[in-house]
Design a protein that fits this description.
- The protein has helices at about 5-30, 120, 130-140, 275-280; strands at about 30-35, 35-40, 50, 60, 75, 85-90, 95-100, 110-115, 160-165, 170-175, 175-180, 185, 195, 200-210, 215-220, 225-235, 240, 245-250, 260-270, 270-275.
- It is α+β, with helices and mostly antiparallel strands and about 290 residues long.
- The protein is globular.
Length: about 290
């Protein structure tokens, strides 16, 4: 009987240790539960998060209902300017759960870009119709809802070069404040290969858009898309399927640019996502 308290103490210590280890593991994985749904990722502006839910569950957030695959996986993204708190609603078999989730803000740099042609800073009224028409093309290309699950697979850099622009920077062209920069700029020589960062369906392949020049949009599935801009040559066609690593275009200096580079952007529906966390720590492909 004298040993009984010692056993209790040992069990209590083991329980506390186990609970602490589990808590640390959950924190390390940034795992959040909303009823039967588990979300993994960083709740921060510009991030992409992955969820797991019963296949028949309905998840609502940011005005969207993410597609839940048969195995229960889904994803969603947080915009550059996502509010500091969002509401996630989950329903399953008549039961409902709700979570008010804080979103960590990010600090964005102010990037001054000089030497831009005046027509790209203050477009003439005669260009308004063209700009509007091309914006509609881009919106339509990003509105596709391919059920390909490539969006949940590891991504790769689409090109190699020096990072000359980062996600979220507020752009000032020739002293005139403009929209934020929603992608990563990879500086490289004209003609360097641009590769598909992951399997995708090509939903746009245009050689000469006003702002973005040569442009390719790739639908990775589940509402996630990549946009590759300022290309000197487009090597794919709309409707074509490509594999990760396939050459889809060549780096150029078309559209609103001051030098040759690839502008790589990602969107989850209408949310602007930072591509960098998806390829952080991964080597860039060789230039050849």
């Amino acid at each position: 009987m004298k040993k009984f308290p010692n056993i209790l103490v040992c069990c209590a210590v083991l329980f506390i240790y186990f609970y602490a280890e589990v808590s640390r593991a959950l924190d390390a994985n940034n795992t959040t539960a909303i009823g039967p749904v588990v979300v993994t990722g960083v709740w921060r502006q510009g991030e992409l998060l992955i969820g797991k839910a019963p296949p028949s569950a309905r998840v609502e957030l940011l005005g969207q209902v993410p597609v839940v695959l048969e195995d229960g996986r889904f994803l969603f993204g947080l915009d550059r300017d996502a509010p500091h708190q969002i509401v996630i609603r989950v329903s399953l078999n008549g039961q409902k759960w709700q979570l008010q989730q804080p979103i960590a803000p990010r600090q964005y740099n102010l990037q001054r870009v000089n030497g831009v042609e005046e027509k790209y800073v203050n477009p003439d009224a005669s260009l308004t119709a063209r700009i509007a028409r091309e914006a509609k093309l881009i919106d339509q290309a990003r509105s596709r809802r391919d059920l390909n699950d490539a969006a949940l697979k590891p991504f790769a850099w689409p090109a190699k070069g020096q990072i000359s622009g980062v996600f979220g920077s507020q752009r000032v062209f020739n002293g005139v404040p403009k929209r934020p920069h929603y992608g990563i700029d990879i500086a490289g020589p004209i003609g360097a290969k641009v590769r598909a960062p992951q399997d995708a369906l090509v939903t746009l392949a245009e050689a000469d858009l006003f702002y973005s020049g040569g442009t390719v949009i790739l639908d990775h599935g589940l509402g996630l898309s990549s946009t590759c801009m300022h290309l000197s040559r487009v090597l794919v066609k709309s409707g074509q399927r490509v594999k990760r690593g396939d050459v889809i275009a060549l780096i150029g200096n078309t559209g609103r640019v001051t030098g040759p580079h690839l502008d790589w952007r990602m969107n989850w529906h209408n949310q602007h996502i930072d591509p960098e966390p998806l390829v952080r720590g991964k080597p860039m492909p060789e230039i050849h």
